[in-house]
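HUMAN: Ready with one sample?

ASSISTANT:
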Amino acid sequence: MKSKWDDLDYLRQHLERALEDIYRSYQPEFMRVLKREWPSLDQNTCLDIFQDAVILVWTNVKNGNLTHLSSTLSTYLCGIGKNLASGYMRKQGRVSYFDEMLDFLRSGESSAELDFLQREEMELIWKFIDQMDEPYHSVLTLTFKYELSSAEIAEIMNAASDVVVRVQRNRGVKQLKALLKTHLI
């Protein structure tokens, strides 16, 4: 649902008041999104990420770096938050995209079954990756098999930037999760 803050001109004119309103209005949904994507994040870390995302939005608007929204401000804020959370988790060494896949598959299994299941899970994941359309197949293969960074993949695939690769990787992971979920049901 659109809000008055989705109008960037209005947002710039009322930036200080907007900051308070955005913080109060968008925090609950933002926190739900982060907890859904990264259940292992604690509440305080989610709040820190939210605050950092709000500051980035505010700075981008104030400095004129944000000139056009192709979505709602809430969606833009959540996108920034997802990137920040993903970076946080990687820096902590707590998760990679592949680990998220394995955690998703393993939910509810006993530890005795995990060794056996890991081989089957990996085979299933690669089977689904191999069936994916481009660019998702290439991005996921370069990420997981060859452990290349977004910048390296962007160069190899002649993508406009590493941001494009990250978006493609996130979409590919979502497709992969959906395939895995339907396979497990």
Remarks:
- The two ends are 32 Å apart (CA to CA).
- The chain has two domains: 4-91, 97-184.
- The chain is about 75% helix and 0% strand.
- Confidence is low (pLDDT under 50) at residues 105-114.
